[in-house]
Specification:
It is built from seven helices and three strands, in the order αααβααββαα. The chain has about 160 residues and is mainly alpha-helical. A three-stranded antiparallel beta sheet has the order 1-3-2. Helix 3 crosses helix 6 and helix 4 crosses helix 5. It has one domain: Winged helix-like DNA-binding domain superfamily/Winged helix DNA-binding domain (Arc Repressor Mutant, subunit A), CATH 1.10.10.10.
Length: about 160
């Protein structure tokens, strides 16, 4: 990036670095508001948590199952965080551990039929909640934001 681009200013004549910092804070605030609402709704409607929803979502998308390390990698959390959730899902008959042939220490975790049914119910409610929260955005708003956030993600990958 050129030095001129780094010091570019916005229409408000503030340094672009300050505008980028403000953007980050607004993205974080919006994300935190959505996440807090989802946490509350999952707890109130299903007696569940967002981390549990995320684990079930990962398993739902992987019918062949996932190793614990794969789940933690997908969700960017420690194996320890995943273990407690998987233990509880297993106790409730929503998931099961299947031994990996040739590796007696490794197991794949997958949802049971009951787990699939429960997650499908939670996922439908989740989609409805997100839709309601973002109802003030029309299709142009959504498409524009998705494009810009994709661009941001690409930029971040290049930065790393």
């Amino acid at each position: 990036m050129s030095e001129a681009r780094k010091t570019e200013t916005t229409d408000r004549k503030e340094p672009l670095s300050k505008a980028r910092l403000r953007l980050w804070l607004k993205l974080l605030k919006a994300s935190n508001l959505i996440e807090a609402s989802l946490r509350q709704k999952l707890r109130a409607e299903f007696g569940s948590t967002l981390p549990r929803f995320d684990v079930m979502s990962a398993l739902y998308r992987s019918p062949e199952g996932l190793k614990m390390s794969q789940i933690s990698q997908m969700l960017r959390v420690s194996n320890g965080n995943i273990t407690g959730i998987v233990d509880k899902l297993t106790e409730e008959g929503l998931a099961l551990r299947v031994a990996v042939p040739g590796d007696r220490r490794a197991h794949r975790v997958r949802l049971t039929d009951k787990g699939h049914e429960v997650f499908a119910t939670h996922a439908a409610a989740h989609e409805g909640w997100i839709d309601a929260m973002l109802a003030g955005l029309d299709s142009d708003d959504v498409d524009g934001m998705v494009r810009r956030l994709d661009h941001l993600s690409d930029t971040m990958k290049e930065h790393d």
